[in-house]
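tool=predict chain=A
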Amino acid sequence: MSPEGIERLLKGVQAGRVTVEDAVQRLRTLPFEDLGFASLDHHRSLRQGFPEVLLCEGKTAKQSVAIARSLIKKGGPFLATRAEPVIAKAILKLDRRARYHADARIVAIDGKPARRAGHILVLTAGTADVPVAEEARVTAEVMGSHVETLYDVGVAGLHRLLGRKDRLFEARVAIVVAGMDGGLPSVVGGLVDCPVVAVPTSRGYGASFGGLAALLTMLNSCAAGVGVMNIDNGFGAGCLAHRINMLDNPRTRRPSAT
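tool=predict ok
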């Protein structure tokens, strides 16, 4: 339940529209709900501003649908990541607002206003890196950030990036997704004054070791202000970039204690 939902519930009790018993029932699943095979953290939106996110990878379709049903029931935005088409199809039946972003492998319900805040730019070195970048983009957008993309601008053809460098300078946060040698975040980090979230991907030939080479390159970046996510972790990059993007934003500032 979101802070706004708690406020509406308490005002309902105060006004007599909601009984105390009904309010207690609605709050019963705070801070978590026990499904037997999963303990859902319904308190997370109160602590962190966004509900728990469902990772479908490694779960059965039945488990994923049961978790999704419970999370959707609480209202607000919803994200199910690493959702293959079969699982996505089953989750889509739970709510007509749900949309499947196939490239990102995400099922999402956008609970935010149409007007998003700030400016995140997502870049990829190559087209093969786009699925991870799309996971980052959809995540940040559903969480409430304004996101733009600039794909296939890797160091093998650096003029493709430098010819559009003005777009880099407009960003509040840059997410840079790259496989192969993983050199693009260092280049971007040397051009901009905003935080750079680097994401290595598992794209590459044998000596890339499934993204390990790109990860080590990014960890050893000579550019200042570059933070590195785990291999293929587009969701983590989108979440982190959104939090940075929302710093000092009046729309997300919590009321101070009195």
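The chain has eleven helices and eleven strands. The first strand starts at residue 33 and ends at 34.
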